[in-house]
Amino acid sequence: MLKHFKSQSLRKQISAAGILGIVITVILSIISIFSYKSLKNTQEQEAKQYLNEVVSQYRNAIDIKIDGNLQTLRALSTFIEKSGDIGLVQILEQLRAESRQNDFLRMGYIMSDGTGYFIDTDGTEHYDIDVGDESFIQRALTGEDTVSDTLTDIFSGETVNCYSVPVYLDGAVTGALTATTSSTAFSSIIEQKLFGGNAYTHIIRSNGDYVVRSSHAVIQKDIKNIFDDGKVSPEDRAYIEKSAKSGQSSFSTFEYKNEKYWTTIFPIGINDWNLFCVVPQDYLSENFGTLMTVFIVIMLCITALFSVLFLYIYHIIKRSRQEITKLAYTDVLTGSDNRNKFILEMQRLLSDNRNYAMVLLNINGFKFVNEFYGYEAGNMLLKHIATVLADNIGEQELCYRDNADQFGMLLRCRRKKELAERLRSIQEQIHKFRLSRNQDYHILCNFGVMIIDEGSKSAVNTDFDTVMNGALLALESVKGNEMDSIAFYDRHLHEKAARKTEIENRMWNAVENHEFIMYLQPKFSLKTGLLHSAEALVRWQPGDGKMIYPDEFIPIFEQNGFITKLDMYMLEEACRCLADWDKRGFPAVPIAVNQSRIFFYDTEYLNKLEEIVRFYAVNPSLIILEVTETVAMNNLEQIKTVIARLHSMGFKVSMDDFGSGYSSLNTLRELHVDEIKLDREFLSFQTESGRDEAIIRNVIHLANDLSASTVAEGIETEQQLEFLKSLSCDIGQGYYFCRPVPAADFFRAVAKLK
Ligand code: C2E
Ligand code: MG
Ligand code: MG
Questions:
Q1: Is the whole-model pTM more than 0.85?
Q2: Residue range 366-398, pLDDT digits in tens
Q3: CA 673 – CA 298 distance, rounded (Å)
């Protein structure tokens, strides 16, 4: 689930980043296209403007030239007109004089019938030449100032342009003056270098005929019209023609011999002449190309920068994801996998058909380790366990830290015995860890195991919770058990757990309803045979059911803390009983009350005790407080203080079940108890083991030295009684004398014994 979620969100992030990348690329592309277009447009505009400016300068130059030449002729015409009716001879005389002062190739006078008289610059004269067919002459004779198209000179064969103005007499045209100039006069203007010599200017008529051709051979020399070789597309041609005829300047493109040109058409204002200027687009594009290259390089740099930034951010996201994943799946302290990781991996492993075992491991007394050796040592221990587990798992096996001092493993399991062997070996390796150089505290662990074989796979759901609960139940059943540290899950544990829940559900009401009943079991002096005291033992008698014995509920109450409530209740019952006996004149028999170890850590405990005995006006010396020896294990100094206070209050203290745990005789020496109760296990083995006998003898001996009396509990046979007597044990308790009886029946039961 977690993995699925992880990969889904990673996929989401990557696709979001991808979309962002695409969006940025698209935006950059749009900016590029837009910039390219606007640059191209600007460049085109600039070219257009430049062409226009240049061509209009040409036009002015041509204009000035033409106007100058016409002015010269006009001045001469006016002079002739003013001279009155002068004859041809005089006119020619004037022309001879005039032709020496200007750079015309020839000057001439045309009679109204079209007969021409010409005088060349070199003095050659041509008379009676019929030029009446020339249209510019015809137009001059009608009163117009004219300039001819480019013509081939009839005398020299040169290409020339001719000017003509009418000559008047008394308001009527009597003839026309002409002047001839070489066409080079125009071409020298239009052949000035433009755009580094790449642009060419021609003077054309509106139908496309050349008037003056630039000497540059952009267009084949023998072609008379710009459209003649048919390389211009019909659309271009139509546009150029339209522009040329419109008498307005225009800008366009055309393609000629596979090369593209910018063209401008600019009317000169004389005849239907236009300046026709062409520039190869490639030439202008060269600069544009450089500009574009710079632009593209900048764009590529920006894209590359974005890409690097994008990759960097992606890298950071990936790294932080890895960190988060690591944190999500790793136990920070030990570095081993955590529960999340374990659940994921476990599901994968359980899907094949091998048999596995879910093992939970818990350290016995870890709280004590932390309190006594410090948290640093506790952490070292946890790390040590993590290392041991990691060293002990094989291929297709798992281990993890669950929480606090609990670890888990998923181990291959062929046979239970084999698995138990492995766990014992792990226990052994953990056991080797030393918390401190000076002290030899043995680390013990408990293991709860749930076997997951084919049978259980099909019978129960093998999800983590089921498997974990099974192993946990098994673990609970051995928690704190130092002798038998491995437990396997079975149905019985399940029933026990159910029973535990039932007990916990009912315990509060049980107190209210007085279902807890005090039974008393007498203790006798082994020397005199007289009644010495009694032990209060709780029985749970539910109103509607079978009696429940303490072995079943006391461990549960100890776990959930309810034991303190019960113990106070029992103490009160004992006090009430003593007060009752006193009132009824029965002898004052001391009552031993079992006390939970939890009390010894409760600061209010002593006050509560005092309150109760005071309330029932009971002499505290009639109360013996029985505590199990394990209470002394953890915090000796505190226990000593509490025992001293109890003594000062008048209570007696008995050490119960001595010899069942890790009791040390030294501990006994430290604690000033009034009574030592030997664990009944000693008696059950006493017949077979000489070793137990030695221990009992020593304990009794030590107790004598410490002025504490010795009590043997669980005496069932005469043989046991005789044995204890032989060892000079002081007091005896057991079924041999009497079973525990309800307090009300106590004296009757004791009396029966005599
Ligand atoms: P314990 O304090 O060691 O109590 C002695 C147990 O030995 C009692 O079991 C008693 O019935 C049993 N016993 C006595 N004579 C014989 C005998 O000859 N043979 C055998 N086999 N057993 C004998 P019981 O009453 O079942 O209590 C079990 C334990 O529950 C007690 O062990 C004590 O640790 C605890 N307990 C009982 N009542 C209380 C209580 O009110 N408060 C606390 N904290 N613990 C209690
Ligand atoms: Mg007891
Ligand atoms: Mg006992």
A1: no
A2: 988 888 889 999 999 999 999 999 999 999 999
A3: 94
